[in-house]
What does this fold into?
Amino acid sequence: MNGIFAAQDGIITRSQAFAAGMSRSAISRRVTSEEWTREAPCIYRRADRRMTPPAELRVAVYSAGDDAVAFGPSAAWWHGLSPAPEQSWVNIPVRCALEYRLHRRVRRRDLRPDDVVVINGLQVTSLPLTVLDSADPSLIDHALRSKRVSMRSLVDCHRRNASRSGTPLAGRLLAEAGERSRAAARQRLITILRRAGIDGWAAHVRVLGHRLDVAFADQRTAVLVDGWAGCLQSHSSLVTASLDTAGWQVLQFSWQELYESPAKVVAEVRASLTRP
It folds into this structure.
């Protein structure tokens, strides 16, 4: 029993107490003796534990039913992405009855199993869905740059939830994030080439209607970059095939390669420029 309280910020549910071997009368005695404090129907706090923000969120979620999930700012905080919000944000299924009202914001949405995770005993929206729900460009950028999520995971989550409210905005934010990352990747490529003393190239060149990030026209070598892995706007294989048919050699580097393996990038560029 003490282990449950320790793991759950001093909070326990009646079903957890039953599972631990307690009877209804044993629970009632602890409430009557003020050893436990009833915070909501079937939700109790050990009296010697303060009602902290984590405890408040647990009460809000646990009291909303077994399928309740923290979402929005509450989920972002639980994932360690942002400060604690002033109120608890709780998602419940569409047909779920909710009689007991706490200081919480409630959203009714049926979530897919892939979009729910359990962290420290609390159900919260998955990190990709939490990031998308935020509709905050800076939070999306932070999550991507810190590698908490990948662009592919965000895109997959966005597609799974295509019918949810806010989908068009999330789609625009994903596209903008992808383009920002590609712009940064292009600048990183240029910096790598300059530091390596490689010249004879031009940036933002159009060939056969395709915009090349960098082109070595004399050697007919095209260099393309992508933003975060799996980006929505990664270069299509049709572009590569079109250039290849026209006699161009195509090099393509990801965000990770440009930032983590610049020596590899330089070696591949040099090799392409000295090919027969």
